[in-house]
Design a protein that fits this description.
Number of strands: 2
Distance between the termini: 44 Å
Strand order of the largest sheet: 1-2
Helix content: over 70%
Radius of gyration: 18 Å
Number of helices: 8
Largest sheet: 2 strands, antiparallel
């Protein structure tokens, strides 16, 4: 039951958003959904980095040590969960500007279900070719944005025109969060917390 909206968001997203809106689940439900789905990219990235090796073009595959890959996977898992919670918080903060009065749980639902396709991209790491993961990642990002634009007017109970601007603001916040995480990663790696490779 935890992932009962997953198929609906792919098969019939508009109807599924109406279902989500009709029976808002608890904060705990949204939290469990996020924690389960965020495991996908973390576990797949760990497995591919240690056992399959990443191919980034010409040359040998790149492998990480098990300890280094575990550290990165745990950090990724935490960053994904925190990112969704912060996005929900920003969406809640912005909602009042657009004439909506949602609870934080509602905006967390919006953030968690729209980020689900991005998390599902983690399965692409089981075929660790950079070009393939990037293509699947772009498709996942596009579908997440589509879900957001479809879901905002339904879940926030605002007109579609206003919902478009609101959804665009949420997308902007999401991109800023992504860039912030990438910048923090680059700073940590240059400070000596980079991954350890095997030969």
């Amino acid at each position: 039951m935890i992932l009962n909206h997953l198929w609906g968001l792919y098969a019939h997203p508009k109807e599924e958003w109406h279902t989500i809106d009709a029976r808002h689940e608890s904060f705990r439900y949204s939290m469990i959904h996020i924690m389960l789905v965020a495991l996908i990219p973390s576990i797949c990235a760990y497995y591919s980095a240690v056992h399959l090796g990443w191919s980034i073009g010409v040359g040998d595959k790149i492998f990480l040590t098990a300890e280094s890959a575990m550290m990165l996977s745990v950090a990724m898992y935490i960053a994904l969960i925190v990112g969704v919670f912060v996005l929900g918080l920003l969406a809640h903060w912005m909602a009042h500007t657009f004439g909506s009065e949602p609870t934080y749980t509602q905006t967390l639902e919006l953030a968690s279900y729209t980020s689900t396709p991005l998390f599902m991209v983690g399965f692409a790491a089981l075929y660790p070719e950079l070009w393939f993961v990037m293509m699947v990642g772009l498709a996942g990002l596009a579908y997440s944005v589509y879900l957001l634009y479809v879901g905002v007017p339904i879940l926030m109970h605002i007109p579609e025109e206003r919902g478009f601007i609101y959804a665009s603001s949420v997308v902007t916040c999401g991109l800023i969060l992504l860039v912030s995480v990438m910048a923090a990663t680059a700073i940590l790696w240059s400070s000596g917390f980079g991954p350890a490779f095997t030969h």
